[in-house]
Amino acid sequence: MFVIIGYIIVCGSVFGGFAMAGGHLGALFQPIELLMIGGAAGGAFFVGNTMSAVKATLKGFPACFKGTKYTKDTYMELMALLYELLGKVRKEGLMSIEGDVERPNESPIFAKYPKILSDHHVVEFITDYLRIMVSGNLNAMEIENLMDMEIETHHHEALLPSHTIAKLGDGMPAFGIVAAVMGVVHTMESVGIPPAELGMLIAHALVGTFLGILLAYGFVGPLSGLLEQKAEESTKMFQTIKVTLLANLNGYAPAMAVEFGRKVLVSTDRPGFTELEEHVKQKR
Hints:
The protein is mainly α. It is about 80% helix and about 0% strand.
């Protein structure tokens, strides 16, 4: 929603200001210029990226037009889930969560937290490391190193759409210049026509540069920054899980381990201590 609102503000400011200055909006409608800029940018996008990067970008692009799913409520559900799992371990032993870990979709504990259960990456991260804890073959330091490497890999993959979109935006002004040069070439080969028509051709050529810059900094570039922020949000989930599980491995009680995880969250999404405690009690 905010992306659409932002685009409306960009278009309203630029085109509205042009019209208020006495410009004719019809002169800016140049579909051929858009075809050259968009087509060249699209072709360069496919040339400069692997198929996996292209698929990741196309898959991640719709997320720009949706609100974030990593809200305060989601983090509270995550910490309540971890608290309940670790509490069960503390009371009944590690083997008691084997069924929950192996079949989370059938687990009555996971079923209480649909927001977490719907995110298969988060569920997989939790169950994988709980499974390692159940096996008892690795110590806390080894598990921490393994978590760090997996989180780094996830973060790199999550940032891939942002990087590809950023490169695409960087190339838009250049493609706008290409379209403008093509317009100038057409203008020069038309020398001899009436001055009014010649001026119109020059104006059309300049629109190419204008569109390239506008698309780069008003439309494509901001999407790159938005995708990067969404990648950071998704990584924060894994960091919270990591800190909570490691605290438990180091001997802290579930309530204190969850408190460690709470401290990882940014202030805007971090629930208060009492708020989280009451939420956990309601879920139990």
